[in-house]
Design brief:
The protein is mainly α and 329 residues long. The chain is built from 13 helices and no strands. It has one domain. 73% of the residues lie in helices and 0% in strands. The protein is globular.
Length: 329
């Protein structure tokens, strides 16, 4: 219960960040918001590392992989907030929750993990859910939809890299490297925008959010940007804590409570009412993702049992789901 409550609270905190950044999408540059947010978040992260691990907490065992993880996280974060500048919050969140589907596919391609027919069927159901959300309204080629799908893909890539570094580097160390990449990425991207922005003349809300020049924020807006930096630190800690005090199989399904806040705030603030197709697609996505999680956990348990047993029995394996080769050993 402690793990579930901590996770739900952390996701609730993250939802405030979505609301504030969506509200800023017609006034500020997303790169400026990222820079301020991460610069603020850097302070509590450094304090936490010093408090928990001392100076050795700044040393990474896999620095190149951590930087790559940070890059994928930066692209995922950028794509997500560019998407919500043009689409309803609930619709973007629904599309982004296709990330577990991408993770499973990428684990086969990059990690050579084994996936049986049942999980492949679940993957197809999940992609059908995405098509249901974006297809009937003719938005499948819309820039914001593409950005939301790229967000799910880059988040999946970040998760794959995390499988490699999770056993060697502490969560706070990973967060530190991610924040540093976010800050550097926002600066480099802003310089590129300053060079190429005159060549663009667009009315697209997502591109405007990206290409808009930096401006001096009002005192209230600056305080809100500082708040989302502190908010991100609290939310990240809650998620890390949740998965450290409770099993993944218990906690992970409650990540879908994030969609509740997206629907609620979208309705209360912007009068966004999700279409029936959004709920149908969401149901398909949640069902397929939970099934994939269940199959993966069962396969890991069977793999562990076969390693501990002196003579693993062939009958303990699922015919359609051979044991997964664990990443990083």
């Amino acid at each position: 219960m402690a793990g579930i409550a901590t996770l739900v609270f952390g996701l609730f905190m993250f939802s405030f960040q979505d609301v504030i950044i969506k509200a800023f999408s017609d006034q500020y540059s997303v790169l400026q918001i990222v820079f301020i947010r991460c610069s603020v978040a850097l302070v509590p992260i450094v304090i936490a590392i010093l408090w928990i691990s001392g100076w050795r907490g700044f040393v990474a065992y896999e620095p190149r992989l951590l930087l790559l993880r940070g890059l994928f996280g930066f692209l995922s974060y950028l794509g997500y907030y560019l998407a919500i500048a043009a689409l309803p919050l609930a619709e973007v969140v629904t599309i982004v929750f296709s990330a577990p589907i991408f993770i499973t596919v990428l684990s086969v391609v990059l990690l050579k993990e084994k996936v049986g027919a049942r999980r492949w069927s679940a993957i197809l159901v999940g992609f059908l859910g995405v098509v249901v959300v974006v297809g009937p309204s003719g938005q499948i080629a819309d820039l914001a939809v593409i950005l939301a799908l790229l967000t799910a893909l880059t988040y999946a890539l970040m998760s794959i890299v995390t499988r490699y570094v999770g056993a060697s580097d502490a969560p706070w160390t990973m967060s530190l490297y991610s924040v540093v990449v976010f800050i550097l990425g926002s600066v480099v991207a802003s310089l590129l925008v300053a060079v190429f922005e005159p060549a663009f003349n667009t009315e697209d809300p997502s591109l405007q959010f990206l290409l808009r020049p930096w401006v001096v924020p009002t005192t209230t807006d600056l305080l809100l940007m500082i708040f989302i930096g502190l908010n991100w630190s609290v939310g990240s800690y809650c998620l890390a804590k949740a998965y450290s005090v409770a099993p993944v199989s218990v906690v992970a399904p409650f990540e879908y409570t994030y969609i509740i806040w997206a629907v609620l705030f979208g309705y209360l603030i912007w009068s966004e009412v999700p279409a029936v197709t959004t709920f149908v697609g969401l149901g398909l996505l949640i069902g397929s993702s939970l099934y994939i999680l269940r199959r993966e956990l069962r396969t890991r348990d069977q793999n562990t049992e076969s390693e501990l047993a002196p003579r693993p029995a062939a009958s303990t394996r699922q015919a359609d789901d051979p044991p997964v080769k664990a990443a990083g050993g």
